[in-house]
Amino acid sequence: MRTLLNLIWLIFSGLWMAIGYALAGLICCVLIVTIPWGIACFRIAAYVLWPFGYRVTDRPEAGLASGLGNAVWLIFAGLWLTIAHLVLGVSFCLTIIGIPFGLAHFKLVPISLLPLGRRIVPTSTHAYPSYRWA
């Protein structure tokens, strides 16, 4: 079922959004100072291509630099991307068939709002490290 949803998503939203995120990543990488945001854009582009079966988790080892970077991102790009995902999510949810895709747009809101200090993991894995008992 995930594969079918991902293929339909790829046609109606994923490919266009991934191209947009990838172009933003290229622009950020050309401007040397904004390389961390460019790398985040590439991660989001890969996530946007195939969102079903993945989730976003926080990175506990991320520090103050990612928080400051998120503040800059929020002002220049995060707010606008979040509004776009919310509008697209509501638009998709207006139809019964589009509800899973609207929910996928809502799932993209946290990482588009504050991308630094987060990671994308498969839903089958846990966000916590496994501990070995001796």
From TrEMBL:
<dbReference type="InterPro" id="IPR005185">
    <property type="entry name" value="YccF"/>
</dbReference>
<keyword id="KW-1133">Transmembrane helix</keyword>
<dbReference type="Pfam" id="PF03733">
    <property type="entry name" value="YccF"/>
</dbReference>
<dbReference type="GO" id="GO:0005886">
    <property type="term" value="C:plasma membrane"/>
</dbReference>
<keyword id="KW-0472">Membrane</keyword>
<feature type="domain" description="Inner membrane component">
    <location>
        <begin position="68"/>
        <end position="118"/>
    </location>
</feature>
<feature type="transmembrane region" description="Helical">
    <location>
        <begin position="7"/>
        <end position="24"/>
    </location>
</feature>
<feature type="transmembrane region" description="Helical">
    <location>
        <begin position="87"/>
        <end position="109"/>
    </location>
</feature>
<feature type="domain" description="Inner membrane component">
    <location>
        <begin position="4"/>
        <end position="53"/>
    </location>
</feature>
<dbReference type="InterPro" id="IPR031308">
    <property type="entry name" value="UCP028777"/>
</dbReference>
<feature type="transmembrane region" description="Helical">
    <location>
        <begin position="30"/>
        <end position="50"/>
    </location>
</feature>
<feature type="transmembrane region" description="Helical">
    <location>
        <begin position="62"/>
        <end position="81"/>
    </location>
</feature>
<dbReference type="InterPro" id="IPR052937">
    <property type="entry name" value="Inner_membrane_protein"/>
</dbReference>
<keyword id="KW-0812">Transmembrane</keyword>
<protein>
    <submittedName>
        <fullName>YccF domain-containing protein</fullName>
    </submittedName>
</protein>
